[in-house]
Amino acid sequence: MSEIKRITTPLTDAIVEGLHAGDSVLITGVIYTGRDLAHARLIEALDRGETLPADLRGQIIYYVGPAPAKPGYAIGPAGPTTSYRMDAYTPRLLDYGLKGMIGKGNRTPEVIESMKKNKAVYFAAIGGAAAVIAKCIKKADMVAYEDLGPEALQRLEVVDMPATVVNDCHGNDLYVEGMARYARTAAHVCSCPTRPVSAGYHLSPRQGDGCR
Amino acid sequence: MRELSVQEITEAVSKMCISANCQASEDLVRATEQTNADEQSPAAKDALLTIRENQRVAAAEQIAMCQDTGLAVIFLEIGQEVHLTGGDLEEAIHAGVRKGYADGYLRKSVVADPLRRKNTGDNTPAIIHTRMVPGDKVVITVAPKGGGSENMSTVKMFPPSAGREGIIRFVVDWVKQAGANPCPPTVVGVGIGGTFEKVAYLAKRALLRPIGQPHTDAYYAEMEQEILAKINALGIGAQGFGGTITSFAVHIEVHPCHIASLPLAVNLNCHVSRHETVRI
Ligand code: SF4
After folding, report:
1. Do the Cβ atoms of B232 and A204 come closer than 8 Å?
2. Is A178 domain-assigned?
3. Which of A179, A185, A197, A207 is the best residue to mutate to test the B interface, defined by the most B CB atoms within 10 Å of its own CB?
């Protein structure tokens, strides 16, 4: 694996061009939260020709709906939500000047094309690792759409937030490449229990583990 | 007739909403560690280390493992010799969910109407499945279910001719197209048989089994292993980063069905596989 790259927001073309699918990064600076309903409202605002509640040009949107913060915490658990739900809105935001997105899961070909065209990058954060990710968020401020509860648009200050580049602006896709690297053909798979059941947990049969 | 106040049920539900969300169960911890040991891909191994670390932090600080603390799915088994007193049973469960999600700083992820989508603000109503059983006990299971993995679930009405092979192919393809969306490593709940509505319930119930505990019928235990091997050969890996383990386990639940039907349901659960049970 490549070494960890540190990047700071806002993102420039040069920063984005230097990132490649599979890179591990640590993100520091301001990022914005936004998921389903916040995206719908941002697009409505663009349609009406209004200024957005935050200037998202050069910025990163983190697809997240945090849990409530316990007293003493800057924010509650805050892991990524599934990105494809934002795909319908994304090319519009990228055309407007958004540079990065953090989420989990596949994007549509339209989004990937738009990322190439606009020099933008898509990162994955570890889905479900919300308690540890929240540790990197030092401050959270409400920006707009407070009525949406967990879906509100917030401004986050993050320090060394870990993420992995999934789609870079050069057209590479970690999900496709990673899967291809580890996929085994059906000929290598057998149904015999190749290893014993230990402590109630089945070990998955692997190539070379006794299956011929 | 044994009397049981629904107030006790409210208390139990409230506590379990919090503990299920904050505390990884023993089987889940074991599955995570074993998967980390077995995984061949460095990127997936890294993700698994973070997932295990997340379980530790959540338990130590009593905060939720995932921000999506789910819709509260409740399974009730009510002994037919129990007389429930003190109010409406379903209302008592909703009250427990309301309290647990407020006290535990859990996210409120329920909208009152599927199309008009206004948040109810307290994570109610819960989804409640009730069964009457012999005896004088009440068994309550709280299984908070996240949206990411729930969205990657399906029901398919096969003709009987599809058979064992048709089902295996469909489940493996389904997990393949879900890719990284359901936060792998996943637990794959498979329901086979019954009717359209029953089969979905079976797939959900399959997720309640301790991770990797095989079906009691050797025929289905072997089928679980075959599907798991084929899923893990897809190469998706933890978080979809590429790897040798995409699912912790496949659990099948079956039910008799109509001579014309072969219903199938797949309910995926993410690595934050949550469920807790109490008997009162
Ligand atoms: S699928 Fe599971 S781990 Fe992933 S975000 Fe949803 S609840 Fe959390």
Report:
1. yes
2. no
3. A179
Buried-exposed string B37-52: b where 16+ CB fall within 10 A, e elsewhere = ebbebebbbbbbbbbb
pTM: 0.93
Centroid of chain to Cα B255: 19
B75-105: pLDDT as tens digits: 999 999 999 999 999 999 999 999 999 999 9
In a domain, B278, yes or no: no
Using a CB-CB cut-off of 8 Å, the residues of chain A touching B65 are 77, 128, 130-131
Cα–Cα distance between B13 and B7 in angstroms, integer?
10
Cα of A107 to ligand 1 centre, how many Å?
17
Residues 6+ apart with CB under 8 A from B75: B129, B131, B139, B140, B141, B143, B205, B208
Q: Is A105 in the pocket of ligand 1 (CB under 6 A)?
A: no
**Complex ipTM:** 0.94
Residues B153 and B184 in one domain: yes
For residue A9, give its domain range. 5-172
Q: Which residue type, as a one-letter code, is found at position B109?
A: S
Sign of the dihedral through C-alpha B246, A165, A25, A127: negative
